[in-house]
Write a structure and sequence with these properties.
Lipocalin
Length: about 240
């Protein structure tokens, strides 16, 4: 089973690389996104802990970058690397990675979330007014949780790497303003998965630049039944794409 999974991942990654090599010679671009999400999540390595209720972790505005390859943007590379933190005294005490934290401890909790996705849209056609394409690729997600208090430091990292399957639909690609929706899923088991979806309105300023306003949802979980981390982010975003 593991060998079949590895072969499937290698095949998808290889197709992405081949497409990238062909597309890179033609065109490439950079995307910069400001995202204003709400945060939700839990981590368990002992006691099940809610990011907000137990750890005091708050929402924050985020900035991420991506790469676009090919004249029609058939190959995309998304990179999100975010850090959230909060400081709170445990109300009833809890344990994390074998360390006990009591109500007298002032605990600084930090959650780092990295999400990397290589997405290939094989049938996407920017010259079509109504455009549907399947979406394939690979994703890698990492959630690191860290607890810090005087004399009590612990951290745990949860990782997941899996193929992506999804779809994208766009209306109005031949006009200055278009509308799109996209959904992608990576699932290896009931305890390891990631889902990403977004809808948006894109406005073309020129052949090189366009602006997107939309709404994005990302959730990821990794670990096992008794030891895991889960994070969900959803909210509006603004994005600028520029082609070189």
């Amino acid at each position: 089973m593991k060998s079949l999974k590895a072969a499937a991942l290698s095949l998808v990654f290889g197709l992405c690389l081949i497409s990238a090599q062909a597309a890179y010679a033609a065109d490439y671009g950079l995307s910069v996104r400001s995202w204003f999400p709400s945060l939700d999540g839990k981590v368990q390595k002992g006691t099940a802990l809610d990011f907000k209720d137990n750890l005091g972790i708050e929402n924050k505005n985020l900035l991420s970058v991506g790469l676009i390859f090919g004249e029609e943007g058939k190959l995309q590379f998304d990179y999100d690397d975010f850090s959230f933190d909060g400081t709170k005294n445990p109300g009833a005490g809890y344990t994390f990675d074998g360390i006990s934290y009591n109500p007298a401890d002032r605990v600084k909790a930090t959650t780092e979330f990295t999400y990397i996705a290589v997405k290939w849209l094989p049938t996407y056609n920017a010259k079509s007014e109504r455009n549907f394409s399947w979406l394939f690729g690979v994703s890698n997600s990492k959630i690191k949780s860290k607890m810090e208090a005087p004399g009590k430091n612990a951290e745990k990292t949860f990782k997941s790497f899996a193929p992506i399957v999804g779809a994208r639909y766009e209306i109005g690609a031949l006009t200055p303003t278009s509308y799109y929706g996209e959904i992608a899923a990576s699932v290896t088991s009931g305890n390891k998965y990631s889902y990403a979806s977004e809808v948006g309105v894109k406005r073309n300023f020129s052949k090189k630049a366009d602006f997107i306003a939309g709404y994005r949802y990302v959730t990821a979980k990794s670990g096992s039944k008794d030891e895991y981390a889960k994070i969900s982010l959803n909210g509006p975003f603004l994005q600028l794409n520029y082609r070189f």
